[in-house]
Amino acid sequence: MTKIKFIEADGKEHEVEAQEGQSVMQTALNNLVPGIVGECGGFASCATCHGYVDEGWQSKLPPPDAAEEGMIACAFHVKPNSRLTCQIKVTPALDGMVVRLPVSQTSE
Amino acid sequence: MEERIVIVGAGQAGGELAAGLRKQGYQGRVLLLGDEAHPPYQRPPLSKGFLLGKVALKDLYLKPLETYERFGIEFKPGTRVEAIDRSTREISLRDGSRLAYDKLVLATGGRARPLSLPGLEGARLENLFSIRSLADVEAMRGGFLPGNHLVIIGGGYVGLEVAAVAVQSGLRVTLLEAAPRLLSRVTGPEVSSFIERIHRERGVEFRLSCEVRGLELDEARRQVRGVSLACHGVPERLEADLVLVGIGLIPNTELASAAGLAVQNGIVVDEYACTADPAILAIGDCANQPSAYTGGRIRLESVPNAIEHARVAAATLMGKREPSAAIPWFWSDQYGLKLQMVGLSTGYEQCVTRGSVEHKEFSAFYLKDRRVIAADVIGRPAEFMAAKRLVSSRAEVDATRLGDVAVPLTSIAA
């Protein structure tokens, strides 16, 4: 079973079970993790599922495509490890991954 | 007795509210009533990926059924609410039972506006469709066969998205629009003509400034055979294998209205999603709310609005007061081209484009009093968030710099 840990901006942790093949965003939604909104439903159109992938895990992910890069480029509170969680598919290799969430998905 | 929140309508707004209450630690009972057989699902892919067969049914579900159980949300599918009794704080269901509430939230959404033409009364037409629900798409898919002629009535987003899917599936498509241009209520002429061009390139035919005069039915009055119309007064008849009507949405306000709540293009609510009855709230497509963005009242039909309005209602129900300050935004996808729109362009004085219309990568900014009130971003996702910020900040801009791709959009605000 693949586990993913989401850490809210205020430090609150949510360790949840993820289903292989689903997106990391959907994993957060299925487990009511606050801080991931997912307005566009996972089509890289809104950046409301933005998260920071912890050191060590980034290299295990395929790099962002052009659509994701475009959305990240102008998202709020961007860091070098910013990703759209809707574009990351859960695989067993991601077991234990930590995703930190930005201060807010909607406010400036 | 434990407090009970009853949500009528298991669409995006209702589902989001139920989840939001639990996320915020609400301890009482949460009942989510939907009249369809499905848990809350995404509607935008209905006219795109789901119609194309690229998105599976279970991937439309916003959350699996199991999530509702696990978080103590009592989801009741196939449940239709007939009436609200405000004096006893009860609702009555179609099966005759009654259900008590402490707080009631109306998230009843809307239904497709039917075609109003003489001679259609009482006809149940098997090849005339609209798209609002999963069932609508499942019914229409049978006619999505290569070579079939699809006539679409209405040149808004639903009509255009279906046109794109249909020509990609090998159908012949003719789209009829009453206005002289496509998307006329939501965008400027520059974007309208661009959208028309990308559809024409793929083979979609258009009849603009078109008046639909009638449908020709078969003898049994079960099938549409043809559509008669007139463009600029010139009559024409089109053969049709199937017809899609995409002419807007009627908000489902009947329950509220019958209960004596104010209805005016939607159920009237304040900035906290409350109706005049302190025990009843309304959210999403069916609600007419004050808008910090326009300064007036507004009813929005969009997913971002449903989510934001659910957030406002959750705060209200948790005893907080957090009015919405969100800027309306929308998106569409046609032929893999991403369209993102923010703000409302009504009343703009100037349109500034940035980028290359020819290369299908441009943004159109709508200016009023030198401020950006809305933007359409096409194939330039990196500009969308910056455009959103320009609209929300209401900053004054220099139109020349705005139109110059060499100037970063993030540095435009004066």
UniProtKB/TrEMBL annotation, chain A:
InterPro entries linked: 2Fe-2S_ferredoxin-like_sf, 2Fe-2S_ferredoxin-type, Adrenodoxin-like, Beta-grasp_dom_sf
BP terms from Gene Ontology: P450-containing electron transport chain
Residues in 2Fe-2S ferredoxin-type domain copies: 2-105
Coiled-coil blocks: none
Lineage: superkingdom: Bacteria
CDD domains assigned: fer2
Pfam families, A to Z: Fer2
PROSITE patterns in the cross-refs: 2FE2S_FER_2
UniProt GO MF annotations: 2 iron, 2 sulfur cluster binding; electron transfer activity; metal ion binding
SUPFAM superfamilies cross-referenced by the UniProt entry: 2Fe-2S ferredoxin-like (SSF54292)
One Gene Ontology CC term in the entry: cytosol
Keyword Zinc part of the UniProt annotation: no
Keywords, alphabetical: 2Fe-2S, Iron, Iron-sulfur, Metal-binding
Cofactor(s) for this UniProt protein: [2Fe-2S] cluster
RNA-binding among keywords: no
Family of this protein: Belongs to the adrenodoxin/putidaredoxin family.
PANTHER family: FERREDOXIN-2, MITOCHONDRIAL, FERREDOXIN/ADRENODOXIN
Entry protein name: (2Fe-2S) ferredoxin
Species of origin: Cystobacter fuscus
Automatic annotation (TrEMBL), chain B:
Organism: Cystobacter fuscus
Listed GO CC annotations: cytoplasm
Residues annotated as domain Reductase C-terminal: 329-412
Cofactor(s) the protein requires to work: FAD
Pfam families: Pyr_redox_2, Reductase_C
Keyword Flavoprotein in annotation: yes
InterPro entries the UniProt entry points to: FAD-oxidoreductase/Apoptosis, FAD/NAD-bd_sf, FAD/NAD-binding_dom, FAD/NAD-linked_Rdtase_dimer_sf, Reductase_C
Signal peptide: none
Gene Ontology molecular functions: oxidoreductase activity, acting on NAD(P)H
UniProt keyword annotations, A-Z: FAD, Flavoprotein, Oxidoreductase
Name under which the protein is recorded: Ferredoxin reductase
Domain called FAD/NAD(P)-binding: residue spans: 4-310
Matching SUPFAM superfamilies: FAD/NAD(P)-binding domain, FAD/NAD-linked reductases, dimerisation (C-terminal) domain
